[in-house]
Design goal:
six-stranded mixed beta sheet, three-stranded antiparallel beta sheet, alpha+beta
């Protein structure tokens, strides 16, 4: 009987704590602070989105890009979406191209790198959509090389 009473009292005491945590705007993450971090632009369906680049699954790339290395991030390769990066020749103003963005059912902040290269003799054009890349690849104008490198690049502003 005493054990039940003690357990009941503990449960009642825990309720205000749980309510306070649930009501907290940051869900127990501690005080919010502002930080200045570099952001980048990338295309999705013809418009520019703003994104961060924080982590990558390749140690050499992490060092080069001054981001965190995370070997385990590579395990997400099969569930990550595509980020297309143009290697070599490119059209003026070329940015990375995303295969989805926040608000879409396929969006994830994890992206596996796909390297796009224009074929010899083809004049590069500005790539702004993943469907455009797929179509130009089918036409033999460019090649796409899939990698197992995964980036953590959350899109923080759409359009």
């Amino acid at each position: 009987m005493k054990t039940r009473l003690l357990l009941g009292m503990l449960m009642l005491a825990a309720v205000p704590v749980a309510v306070a945590l649930a009501a907290s705007p940051n869900m127990g993450m501690g005080p919010m602070h502002r930080a200045s971090v570099p952001s980048f632009l990338g295309y999705y369906d013809g418009h520019k989105d703003t994104f961060l680049s924080t982590d990558i699954s390749n140690a050499a790339s992490a060092k080069t890009e001054h981001v965190n290395f995370s070997h385990k991030l590579g395990a997400s390769s099969k569930t990550a979406e595509e980020i297309y990066l143009v290697n070599g020749r490119s059209a003026s103003g070329q940015l990375p191209v995303f295969s989805s963005e926040p608000g879409e059912s396929t969006y994830t902040p994890l992206w596996h790198e796909e390297f796009v290269t224009w074929k010899a003799g083809v004049t590069p054009q500005l790539l702004v959509k993943d469907d455009q890349i797929t179509q130009l690849q089918k036409q033999g104008m460019l090649s796409v090389r899939e990698t197992s490198i995964v980036l953590n690049c959350p899109i923080i502003k759409v359009g």
